[in-house]
Structure of Glutathione-independent formaldehyde dehydrogenase:
Amino acid sequence: MKAVVYEGPRQVAVKEVPEPRIETPGDAVVRITTTNICGSDLHMYEGRTNVEEGKILGHENMGVVVETGPGVTRIAIGDRVSVPFNIACGACRSCETGWTSFCLRANPTDGVDGAAYGYANMGPYDGGQAEYLRVPWADFNLLELPPGDEHENDFTMLSDIFPTGWHGTELAGMTPGDRVAVFGAGPVGLMAAHSAVLRGAAEVYVVDKERDRLAMAEKIGANPIDLAEADPVEQILAATGGVGADCGVEAVGYQAHDSAGAEHPELVLDNLVKVVRSTGGIGVVGVYLPQDPGAASEGAKQGRIAFDYGSLFMKGQQMGTGQAPVKRYNRQLRDLIIEGRARPSFLVSHEMSLAEAAEGYERFDRRDDGWTKVLLRP
Ligand code: NAD
Ligand code: ZN
């Protein structure tokens, strides 16, 4: 089959690879109908991780089940499914308490709790930017969708970024009527803003410098804050009569940069501490890589981020962080889509064939004008 493989910094290629097969009784094989390129893929693409050459990428997957192992009883061949990016066993202490993003059994190889498809340090699993994908613990992990092809571009957001954006608002302790500051108008930030609106925010402020992305935030009812025009903290304080936001979401990650383009991993954390009122919450879903002194690239060596923890303390703010436990939210978010209340497909800018993946990566990575979210159709 054809699959997108990592070949080195800023190099991906579509290669012929062996088809996946059932390896353990609980596995299923899914024929991929849609698989997305994610901002998280860019950490690997830009050479900031130690992902191995030849790794099949892709953790935002959906499709139709074509094969099941003898232990699979709930999911059946022919089911249309969303595949949460977390691979979880369903029975460990983390999974039992809803924290599938920190499964204690799915990743025995990398010294961290939690596993994902096609990702550096997240277990030995192939990704789904391919024609087929093996899904472990299929009965537990897969979310069934209505048959057919309706809402394909909405449902494809259920594997990661819609639950991740929602999780950002949850970690921030958001309640109805809150003023919410979202840093980053990439796909994750836009999903956090969409979630905040759905959850009854009084106002949502979305910070970025990419005009096309800010325009999308405005379209879904948020206030765009262009950091290239003036300090985003000052702008939000001015808009809230000096009070600031009740809570905030970090949807940028350690590659945050200033308006001149210089990288400052601490910048967005500092801004959130400043702009969120005392005792308010901050949900950090942007990725920060663990410290790895032996890593090849500077990016992957990070881990220690010198943000203003003292002000966080003095303001008594709450901060939550980590990979999103997709399964905790995807059923409800699916039903919001089915009932017409949520429309996460608004951010889709490009639908490409798998063969065009290299161009999709390159242009999404450059944040070319209008390249907000790229879907691949194997
Ligand atoms: P993205 O890179 O497309 O979006 C990031 C956006 O942040 C860009 O639009 C960029 O212009 C903007 N930005 C840069 N510096 C900024 C600053 N100082 N202030 C405000 N905005 C700034 O990526 P994405 O797909 O939206 O993902 C965002 C982050 O979320 C990434 O770190 C990704 O790895 C992470 N992520 C986390 C999870 C999770 O489970 N926690 C899941 C998916 C993605
Ligand atoms: Zn993703």
Observations:
- The longest strand covers residues 28-36.
- The chain has two domains: 2-160+325-377, 162-321.
- The domain at 2-160+325-377 is CATH 3.90.180.10 (Quinone Oxidoreductase; Chain A, domain 1).
